[in-house]
Amino acid sequence: MTRLSLRARFSLMFGALFLLAGAILLLVNYVLAARYLPDGTTFSGSQAAPTVAGQTTVSEGAPAVGNPEVITSIDDYRQSAVRTLIIVSGFGLLLTGALAMFLGWLMAGRVLQPVHAITATARRLEAGNLESRINLDGPPGELKEMADTFDSMLDRLAASFDSQRRFVANASHELRTPLAVQRTLVDVAMADEEASPDLQRLGRQLLVTNERSERIIEGLLVLARSDQGLASSGPVRLDEVTEHVLDSMSGLAARHEVTLRRSITAKTVAGEEILLERLVTNLVHNAIIYNEPGGWVHAGVDGALVVENTGPAVPAESLPGLFEPFRRLAGDRTSHTNGAGLGLSIVRSIATAHHGSVRAEAGAHGGLRITVELPGPS
After folding, report:
1. Is residue 213 part of a domain?
2. Same domain, yes or no: 21 and 117
3. pLDDT tens digits, 184-235
4. Please, what sign has the CA dihedral across residues 253, 255, 258, 259?
5. What confidence tens digit (pLDDT) does each residue in 136-158 have?
6. Contact at 8 Å (CB) between 218 and 118?
7. Are 128 and 231 in contact (CB under 8 A)?
8. What is d(CA 347, CA 369) in angstroms, rounded to the nearest whole number?
9. Of 311, 314, 312, 313, which is closest to residue 295 (Cα–Cα)?
């Protein structure tokens, strides 16, 4: 059942109150008319008084005995007057009630106009664009105070997001530089011909740890950036991005003995190409490393981006948790990987930043089937 809008409810309430007040007034008029309009029995007198031209009058207060026609005529006139009063007043009440509802509709629209302005502004807002403001004009009042408070809140949010962007930009440099220096120092130490086997083994372990730290930091930075929304947006050929990612992943697939399959048609979406490439890369990378030797990965682009792979079956109750940061399945699915558990979290964050959606399903051949739907250019 469709719920009435607030404007319609205001109009109906205004009209109902008007009709109720009018009905009460009509009832009062009926009672007064029925009580005070005289009937035939109220005319009394000792006898009829003759008048000129043979006419007869009945004095008030004298019994109209002997004149039943006069009594009947007066009663009929009284009943007709009361009935006419009720009918005419009833029709008048209905017409004025309809007019009251129409005027209530107009008044409610004017009163709720600031609310519509607030709603329209909220719909235009997104994490990457907090520039819209209500700027409600008019005299001071509750709605203007609410609109001004909303604008002040947007100012604070915009300042907060700007601060986060600056932090991400600075952290990107400050966190990567020490790791790059550490990796260089370890490479130099391992390149020394006099390095002992123990030092070589320690160096390899440090490089693995360093690489994992770099992946975690890179993933967190991408996640933070996508959570803030899009800095810019334009038409992106999703099919070309997917083709490029699949070509770049062919070496990784060969090392894991996984076959890459594709069925791609032209598809243009609205967004940021770098983030969309990262989305596809994460999906294909996860589909390769969370697989089995001899398995396959299928990437399709049609109305949506679909990436499906073989591999260990995923329990249905575990599917929602796959998109949480640092959440990975236990057992064979992750025991042979060094992932940070951020891949699908980044996918969901990027899809959300593009006003899209992502869902995961258990694959028909084991593994996962992940579908990403993204809007096209406006």
Report:
1. yes
2. yes
3. 988 888 888 888 888 888 888 888 888 877 777 776 777 676 666 676 778 9
4. positive
5. 887 788 888 888 888 898 888 88
6. no
7. yes
8. 14
9. 311
